[in-house]
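RECORD TYPE: protein structure
NAME: RNA polymerase sigma factor
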Amino acid sequence: MTVSEYNEAVDLYSDRLYRFVLKTIKDMHKAEDIVQDSYEKLWKNVENVDATKVKSYLFTTAYHTLIDRIRKEKRSVFSEEMNLREKSHENNYSDLKEILQEAVNRLPEMQRMVLLLRDYEGYSYKEIGEMAHLNESQVKVYIYRARVFLKSYIGKMETVL
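PREDICTED:
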């Protein structure tokens, strides 16, 4: 991969990568840091990355960096603050968007990632499979399970409301 191909990757994928990370982590500054870390890792490994697979490399790297960050924060005080915040807002939903966001947050990490890549970012099953190191049928199964969970969760919430 050349420097110009690297610069082109920055131009082409930085916005999508940022939206993907932000949708999962919901913190602008942390999302920016993760995107920056992903491009830094790409720069350090620029000679070994094929220019045709840079998109997959970036999203995979961002996803793994995101997971590492989440796991690290779970071991810190952050997890205690989240639990307190969740308890204070429990069952105080004002609209469907909040309910859907709560449901998406309850999905397992892999289901949430493939669902966000497919439904929010519009990637194909094949592209998602490359990014997550899954085959297409596994991606379809994760998306199906996520949608079934969302449907049942939202249905339960509507009966409560």
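COMMENT: The helical segments are 3-25, 28-44, 54-74, 78-88, 96-106, 109-120, 125-132, 136-160.
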